[in-house]
Each structure stands twice: as C-alpha cells, then as structure tokens.
Amino acid sequence: MRESVQASTALWSRGMAAVICAQFLSAFGDNALLFATLALMKQQFYPDWSQPILQMVFVGAYILFAPFVGQFADSFPKGRVMMVANSLKLIGAAGICVGVNPFIGYTLVGVGAAAYSPAKYGILGELTTGDKLVKANGLMESSTIAAILLGSVAGGILADWHVLAALGACALVYAGAVAANLFITRLPAARPGQSWRFNAMTHSFFFATRALWRNRETRFSLVGTSMFWGAGVTLRFLLVLWVPVALGITDNATPTYLNAMVAVGIVVGAGAAAKLVTLETVARCMPAGVLIGVAVVVFSLQQALLPAYALLLLIGMFGGFFVVPLNALLQERGKHTVGAGNAIAVQNLGENSAMLFMLGLYSLAVKVGVPVVGVGIGFGALFALAIVALWIWGRRH
C-alpha cells in the first residue's frame, strides 16, 4: 500500500513531533472553547437543557460530513488537510468572539473538527507502522488528554475572569495550531485521483462502511469506541449540572477541574495500554470498559469533592486502557482495506451518532426533570451492561 511506504521504523520524527504539537493545540482550543461558550450561554441565560444541544450541533457536523471527510483526508497530504481544518476552527471561534450566535460558530468548529479527525489519525499510519502504531496512538491520546486537561481548566478559569477574554484566547490557540501544521512533513496523498462527484463519494463511503462493519475485528472496534466516546461526552455535561447539585458549588471552574481528572486518568490508562496490550491481545481492554460504568455509578452517589476527584481519575484510567487498543486495531485493519482516512471517517460516524443519541437522551432527561444523580446512576449502569454484552458477543464470534 502506498500509505505504508512512507512509514518510519522510528516512533519519533520531525513529522510526528509536529503532528503531536498541532493536535495538542487543536484539542486545547476545542476544550477551552466548549467551557468558554457554555459560560457565555450561562451569562446570556440559555436554559440548562440547551447546553447538550451545543455539543449536538458539533457532532451533527461529523455525521453530516462523514461521507466526504475520509476521502478529503486521503486525497491530499494529511498535514495540509489538518491545517485547513484548524483554519475553520479558528474562524468559528473568532465568530463567537464578535457576537455570532454560539450555536452557529460552534457548528463551524464542528465542521473543522470533522475534517481534522481522519487526517490526524490517518497520518499516524503514514509516519509509523507495526507495533509502534499502538504506541503512536498512545502518544496521540496522551497529547489529546493533556490538552483536554489544560484546555478545560483554562477555559473555566478564564471564563470566570472574563468570558470574552476566554473566547479570544481560544481563537489564538487555534491560530497556533494552524502554524504548527506547517511543520508537518509533506507526505504524498494516500489515494489521489478519486472522483469528487457527490454520488461517487457517498458510494465510496458507504462501501467502506459496509466493509468495516462486515469485518469481525473492525466491527468490534467500531462498537467499542462509539460507546466509549458517546459516554465520555455525556459525562462531561453531566458534571456541569452534577457539581452544583451534589457539591453546592456554582462556579465555572470546578466542573473543568473534575473533567481534568478524567483527562489525567486517560493519559495513565493510555500509557498502560501501550505497554500491556497489542493488536493480538485487544480483548484485554474489555474489563476496563465494564469498570467505567461501575465507577460512574459510585461517583454519582458522592457528596464530597475529594472522593469525586479520585473516582474520576479512576474512570479516566479505565477509559484510556479501554479505547487506545481499539483505535489502533481499527487503524491497522482499515489502512489495508478501505484506507486510513475512510476508516476513521466511518469510526467518526459511529462515535458521533452514539454521542448524538446519548446527548439527546440526556437532554430529554434534564428537560423532563429527572434528578441529575439518578441520571448518573442509570447512565453508568447501562454503560456497564452494554460493555458486558459487547464482550460476550466478541468472545462468541
């Protein structure tokens, strides 16, 4: 395959360092912008149930553009694709700064993120290969989670100080990500010359979707990662409402600190997965998935800050150990069948459909008045049972 020709035997290279740096800045901006925009909505008296809608328009862009972004990533040098995508994020963040409706501005950021994701993961298979691909995914996830950690905290703290300053800082960070993309090694396009007609592109995407869902290993990975990220984004919004109810704290910063503990845990879990799990032993990650749901149930019952921090750290560790091997499995198998960009686009469709579904249920539960603690307990229990079912199904097949 043309993609593998460019892969290096070394894990670190100039191109890999530039990708990790660009990813850190882009993810930092994403997470800071979310909390800054939520603070803006709070300042402008948007109802509580509208908060998940903000994330739903973001993931809606992933779903709408899923048939096209994989081919876009594979048809051009992926470093340049990442630069264009970060430029869209910059425009969206700047728009919110100057008074554009937050839902419109955040939708544009979502379009940029949808285009960015297949390129950022697909380029890993072009810069490295084999067993080092799991380690490269660990670096990518660690960079992402460090950005979630720092970006979430920065967004909350800056928003408590000045909402407009927080939004402006997000735009500057996206500008830094655009600049970092210029230093990524210019690799040849993985699959140039594909048709750009609408019918041909949608046919190509749905062919890739069908191929990946029919394969036992890639289907297992798609289901697992979709469940994880759907649960992760729901937990983030659950924390925003859980903190004032369970802890009596009403600032913008405390939910970001708690989200940061999940981020720290994922870094630790991702590192452990890189050392203990290979593509041949992916099933080792499944108990961690079950324990995520159990820990969420226990967390929802807490009424003190210290045990809440500890449990969210634990949830993050289980999450990192669970999702990193599944990502690597999909990239490796997808690269040799439908192309890495198409594989990640299909994954994004699954993950963001799960996010949209779970956020919709969460928003509905809040709107009809279900207590936030009850939402957390039900959410954790259902997630644990779903992972158990996936584990049993995987073993039988």
From TrEMBL:
Keyword Transmembrane helix: yes
Primary localization: membrane
One Pfam family hit: MFS_1
UniProt subcellular location: Cell inner membrane; Cell membrane
Example GO molecular function: lysophospholipid:sodium symporter activity
Keywords carried by this UniProt record: Cell inner membrane, Cell membrane, Lipid transport, Membrane, Transmembrane, Transmembrane helix, Transport
Membrane spanning residue stretches: 16-41, 53-70, 90-117, 164-184, 220-245, 257-278, 285-302, 308-330, 342-362, 368-393
Task of the protein: Catalyzes the facilitated diffusion of 2-acyl-glycero-3-phosphoethanolamine (2-acyl-GPE) into the cell.
Family: Belongs to the major facilitator superfamily. LplT (TC 2.A.1.42) family.
HAMAP family the UniProt entry points to: MFS_LplT
Name of the molecule in the record: Lysophospholipid transporter LplT
The species this protein was found in: Enterobacter lignolyticus (strain SCF1)
